[in-house]
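Entry:
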Amino acid sequence: MRNTWILVADGGRARLFACEPPGRTLSEVACFANPDGRLPGRELVTERPPRVDESVGGARHAIEPHTTLREKSTERFARTLSAALERGRLDRLYERLVLVAPARFLGALHGCIGKPLLGRVVGEVRRNFTALPTPEILERLPRRLLH
């Protein structure tokens, strides 16, 4: 009997399900929230960007960050999810993993997931199902991923 975990996530919320063989029921294992992932970009900025003095003259310039606060928040959330999935792998709570997330967040997850965990991934769905009720998530997933 092979146990499958299904992570349904976006930048602001994630739900982790266990799929009971033979793929007929989903039970929620954990729920994660990233409140910063739901805020509009302008609300993530709390103060003016830092300033730097010009080496010649009295001019001052703002320093623009290389990554936005939203990107940093998303990356932190992806690392949190990756750590939870890694704990489950080490505790042998599942054998197979399915990732369901929008393409941008899947990219963030791939940046955090190590090779041993990536080896458990049997499929990906590039959609946002986080707001759907559990039975509808099960209905929309390809059957081949659940067996």
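The mean pLDDT is 85.
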